Amino acid sequence: MADADRTPAAAATAPVRGRWREIARQSNLLGADGTLASTIFAEMSALAARTGAVNLGQGFPDTDGPRSILDGAVAQILGANNQYPPGRGVPALRRAVAEHQRRFYGLEVDPDTEVLVTAGATEAIAACVMALVEPGDEVVTLEPYYDSYAASVALAGAVRRTVPLRFPDYRLDVDALAAAVTPRTRLVLLNSPHNPTGHVLGRAELEAVARVAVEHDLLVVTDEVYEHLTFDGIEHVPLATLPGMAGRVVTISSAGKTFSVTGWKVGWVVASKEVVDAVTTVKQFLTYVNAGPFQPAVADALALGDDFYTGVATRLQAGRDALVEGLLDVGFTVSVPQGTYFVVADAAPLGYADGLTLCRELPERAGVVGVPVQVFHDDVEAGRSLVRFAFCKRPEVIADAVARLKALHRG
């Protein structure tokens, strides 16, 4: 081919091969025509921006974390701590994570060999799944599920099997969990407090997971990013604290949700040395390292007093109560969440059989954005009329959203 023919237009027509299509398919991002669709979060955020709607879709706070944490990060940046941190994370943060596990859960963790700092929990999940399963292996997870779980399983070339949690109580069906495990199962991917449902797995449910894991010799990856955000006195119980489980549990958490710094993307993995070595092998070829100046600030944040942790949960519970009351007043049926940032509401009593259709119309009809729960399901019908709303917003924002939603009565 002549050089004159090597134009950008010609290059753009070259076929794009690889696993992206399968990843998009398993993540519900592949359109019927084979093209890549935007995530539901991108679609809903764009609708919010275009219409000026109150965005209760994506789960991030509209206020920053404590000033002391922010000042700590600024001091690190101005103090020239802006180059690559150590591969497993700065020692101060790894020690702080280990102390956090001891302080809140009585777990003894070696910060040098059993803690890995990651680019948020999302990278931790991907690195864990890719490190711990092989192509063709099966990964069992709860459904509805956080959307990155499907993508991580697809990246690993594994097969996703789900255990449904049903509206409105979302309790774990122990028999369904046992039935989901096959001889090809290698990993259980668990999330509690659970996104998107807000359910906090109780001790009896966790004991059932432990029995299955021991019986089938499985590792369990637990996504606990909302660990400090539980309500009504409900206790978050880490699976690793159950008898005999510390050695087969891989615990993931992060700073973003607890400290309202979701953009910092600082997470961590706590597991046995052998597991951390394996996950590190993958992680170093994903982001290598991350968030150098933020890691020491997060270390300081983890040492904040109990009043901080209880204060965060108390403020969020007030937001939950205001939103739940408002949704009930509008006419939704509501599952009252025990934790997280989110409440799931059924729009069927308002005459909306399809939550996706409602969410696409809601910005124009009522000036509010939510997220359809069906996108987190393999069994779309199980979440067909359900919508997830975020309450990690200022009280006046929640009040405004509730007032706007009352327009549905007049729709």
Overview of this protein structure:
- The longest helix has 25 residues, at 306-330.
- Strand 9 (333-335) and strand 10 form a beta hairpin.
- A seven-stranded mixed sheet has the order 2-8-7-6-5-3-4, sandwiched between helices.
- The chain has 411 residues and is an alpha/beta fold.
- The chain has helices spanning 8-12, 20-26, 40-51, 67-78, 91-105, 120-132, 147-155, 174-180, 203-216, 273-283, 294-302, 306-330, 355-366, 395-405, and strands at residues 54-55, 115-118, 138-143, 159-164, 185-191, 219-223, 249-254, 267-270, 333-335, 342-346, 368-369, 371-372, 386-390.
- The protein folds into two domains: 25-64 and 307-410, Aspartate Aminotransferase, domain 1; 67-304, Type I PLP-dependent aspartate aminotransferase-like (Major domain) (Aspartate Aminotransferase, domain 2, 3-Layer(aba) Sandwich), CATH 3.40.640.
- Oligomeric state, counting identical vs distinct chains: single chain
Percent of residues in helices: 25-40%
Cα separation of the termini: 61 Å
Number of strands: 13
- Uncertain ranges: none
Number of helices: 14
Under the CATH scheme, the architecture of the largest domain is: 3-Layer(aba) Sandwich
Q: Compute the number of structural domains.
A: 2
The biggest beta sheet reads: 7 strands, mixed
CATH topology of the largest domain: Aspartate Aminotransferase, domain 2
Integer average pLDDT: 94
Envelope shape = globular
What percent strand?
A: 5-15%
Order of helices and strands: HHHEHHEHEHEHEHEEEHHHEEHEEEH
CATH class assignment of the largest domain: Alpha Beta
Structure class: alpha/beta
- Give me the side-by-side strand order of the main sheet: 2-8-7-6-5-3-4
> CATH homologous superfamily name of the largest domain?
Type I PLP-dependent aspartate aminotransferase-like (Major domain)
